[in-house]
Amino acid sequence: MKTEVTVVTERGQVSIPAAIRKRMGLAAGRRVCWEVLSDQACRVTAVATARQHVGATAMLGFAKTFRKARTTAAWMRQLRSGEGA
């Protein structure tokens, strides 16, 4: 593959040439890892993506982000007490 040159913007952003994006399968939102090799060289590696859940399965485990796990007995107490528990 031929060498491609891009420019760093004032905000520190760099565009990845289209030919490289296509060859590496890079799309918007894909993460890349920058590794400094020397004062003049660095390595950019596409980060492996985790398998994305879609539909209803995407919600699995979401409640753990804001609520501690409860026992069945605790859930039943809440359900039997009404809205306020």
Main beta-sheet annotation:
2 strands, antiparallel
Structural class: alpha+beta
- Rg to the nearest angstrom? 23 Å
Q: Within the largest sheet, what's the order of strands?
A: 1-2
Gross morphology is elongated
Give the number of helices. 2
Commentary on this structure:
The protein is of the alpha+beta class. Helix content is 20%, strand content 12%. It is built from two helices and two strands. The chain has helices at 18-24, 72-81; strands at 32-36, 42-46. It has a two-stranded antiparallel sheet. A hairpin with a 5-residue loop joins strand 1 (32-36) and strand 2 (42-46). The model has no long low-confidence stretch (mean pLDDT 84).
The gist of it:
The protein has helices at 18-24, 72-81; strands at 32-36, 42-46.
List the helices and strands and how they pair.
Elements (H helix, E strand, L loop, with lengths): L17 H7 L7 E5 L5 E5 L25 H10 L4
List keywords for this structure.
two-stranded antiparallel ribbon; 85 residues
